[in-house]
Amino acid sequence: MSCIEKLSETSCLTATGPLAGYRVIELCSTIAGPACARLMGDFGAEVIKVEPREGDSVRSIGGQDKGVSLYGSAILRNKEAVSINIKTEAGRDLLLKLINEADIVVENFRPGTLERLNLGYDVLSKDNPKLVLVRISGYGQTGPYAAKPGYGAICEAFAGVRHMTGDPDRPPSRTALAATDYLTSVYAAFGAMMALLNAQKTGVGQVVDAALYEAAFSMMESVVPDYDRTGVVPMRQGSRLPGTAPNNLYRGSDGNYVLIAANNDAVFKRMARAMDRADLLEDPRYTTIRGRNTNHEALDAEVAEWATTVTAREAAERMEAAGVPTSLVYTIADIFEDPHFRERDMLVPVPHETLGEVTVAGVVPKLSATPGSIRHLGHEVGEDTFAVLQRVLGISDNALHDLARDGAIMQHGLDAFDERKAVRA
């Protein structure tokens, strides 16, 4: 049963957005799974994150301030943090009861882990046939590599993306961000929404199988038919985008970089005039998109030479005035200074009990009628254990203390030894 049918529950009343009233159980660690559930939480879902006592390893990634995980504050936002030891019989029973009251479960264990815990989809959906189970893994739930461990970076290499990243005369590179994890989280959330819609129509849920390597491979869409028909294995292109020209980074006279993208004929004409190089429009090598791509090295050299005559900012301003897509290469410091990010609510300061305030990235995408929101930052491990189990399952105080004493659950700030003495007294 979703909490849309329990309007008296506080968590449902405080959430807004298109997913308000739906309950999500998150059984995830690191990035792709938590990011998927965070998307649902941003748009109003009641997300209950279930962690072991030691917590999700994502809490140890990135910076810390006064003992607070800054990444955890962001990726665990809009979630209630519950600590349950699902390797105990009592803990497993609690998890099953929570799942019986949920609409969606998100997990990113290695395939087979849930089944070994006797928590496969057949068990989870037995008393909750509309349940949607989102399974995120490196290589998917089936196939010869299903059991292999795989992080986003590993699966980028397997999917061919890493081969395409970097400069042709250097080893394959990577972006210093978890790009494939976040892309997979969006595919997984999209799959969950489609499955949820179908469950509403049919009364029957299903499993969403989201593989990191497949999300990465989806970026190879243009490469697949090319290789099939021509046998060409494309190589790394450095900072340029293959297939169009000019679309590259150019260094200004001040040493800073500007990215200019003149992908089609109309934009190329505007770029040439902004450079005071109308002669480029008469060059037969550059009169078509294919011609410019074929002769991209010569064309890039022309644009690069022009860029050295102005600062990167001046180049960007001239291109922008002419209607040519362009941007300086921003650092995070530049982003914090740019008014557009603030105006679009992409840098959102949120109150924090320990730190006073933490700025996090905003909600994406923007919905005109039912927008998402950031209700609170990430909670500590087990901060909401007692509150959630009381609210959702109606477990009494004494029973919760007994469960904590026996190690089936953990409540943040509760010393198990002292609590045992208090209960006995």
From TrEMBL:
It holds the Pfam family CoA_transf_3. This is CoA transferase. PANTHER family: SUCCINATE--HYDROXYMETHYLGLUTARATE COA-TRANSFERASE (PTHR48207:SF3). InterPro entries: CoA-transferase_III_domain, CoA-Trfase_fam_III, CoA-Trfase_III_dom3_sf, CoA-Trfase_III_dom_1_sf. GO terms for molecular function: transferase activity. The keyword Transferase applies. It comes from Aquamicrobium zhengzhouense. It comes from the Bacteria.
